[in-house]
Amino acid sequence: MLVSAKDMLTKAKKGKYAVGQFNINNLEWTKAILLTAEENKSPVILGVSEGAAKYMGGFKTVTNMVNGLLEDLKITVPVALHLDHGSYEGSYKAIEAGFSSIMFDGSHYPIDENIAKTKEFLKIAEEKGLSLEAEVGSIGGEEDGVVGTGELADPLECKMIADLGVTILAAGIGNIHGQYPKNWTGLDFGVLRNIIKETGETPLVLHGGTGIPEDMIKESISLGVVKINVNTECQLSFTAATRKYFEDNKDKEAKGFDPRKVLAPGVEAIKNTVKEKMDLFGSTNKA
Ligand SMILES: [Zn+2]
C-alpha cells in the first residue's frame, strides 16, 4: 500500500540519512526501482512529473500500475508515489488519482501567492494524510520545459513556507536539474546552513541529484537534507546499457528482437544506479 513520505523522512532526519526520490517513466522503470528498494530494504519515493504522467497515459494509469506492482511483486518497504513539480491543476488531478505525496511547485508565483496556494494544498494533504512538498525560489536547469536560473533561495522566504507546516521544503542552494555545466561552482553550503537555521525541523530536499559529487551529497545529508531527487542519472545509465545492446548486435542474435530482451540491460542498469544511490544516501536497510 502506498504511504505518505512523512514517516520515512522523519525517520531519515533522526537517523541522519536521506531517502531517494527516483523518477519513473514506464513499467520497466517502476519495476526496477521497486525491486531494488525491496532488495535493499530501503524506503523509496517514486517521482512522477506531469510530463511523465501524461506520457504513461495519465495519473490514474500511473497509480494503478504502481499499486498493482506493489501487490504482485509483494513489496513490503515503504513506498510513496509523489508528484514532482506539480502545477496548481496537476496537483489536484494527482490527489484525485490516488498519489500519496504531492509537490506543489509554486516557486514561479510571487511569494504571497505561493503561500496562499501552498496553504490550500496543505489543508487537503492533512485531510487525506498525504505529504506535501513546497518550493521556494527557483532551482536551476530545465525540467519539462521549466527553465530556472540556478538561483539561491532566500532563507526568510524558506521560513515563511516552512512555518506553514509543509512536510518537505525544496530550496535552491546552487543545485541544477539535468546535467551540470562544466563551470558549475558547486552547492552553496553557507546558504544551506542559513536555510536550516530558519526552517528548523522541516525536512529539506535536494533536487537535481545527478552529477553532484559524493562528498557534497554526504555533506548535505550531514547538515539535514533528507530527500534527494534522482532522475537524469537513471536515464543516462538506461540509455548507455541499451546502446551497448545494439552496438554488440545482440538484437541480431536469436530472439534478440524480443522487447523484453532489448529492455533487460537497461533495467539492470537502472537497478545498479538506484542501489548505488541508496547506499550513498544511507537508506539501505532502513525500511
Ligand atoms: Zn526538481
Structure explained in plain terms:
The chain contains eleven helices and ten strands. The protein has helices at 6-15, 27-39, 50-55, 59-72, 88-97, 111-128, 155-162, 189-199, 214-223, 232-247, 259-281, and strands spanning 19-23, 44-49, 79-86, 101-104, 131-136, 141-143, 146-148, 168-171, 204-206, 225-230. An eight-stranded parallel barrel has the order 1-2-3-4-5-8-9-10, surrounded by eight helices. It has a two-stranded antiparallel sheet with strand order 6-7. It is α/β, with parallel strands linked by helices and 287 residues long. Strand 6 and strand 7 (146-148) form a beta hairpin. 45% of the residues are buried. It has a single domain (6-281), classed as Alpha-Beta Barrel (TIM Barrel). Helix 7 packs parallel to helix 8. The mean pLDDT is 93. Residues 85, 139, 143, 177, 207, 229 line the site of zinc ion.
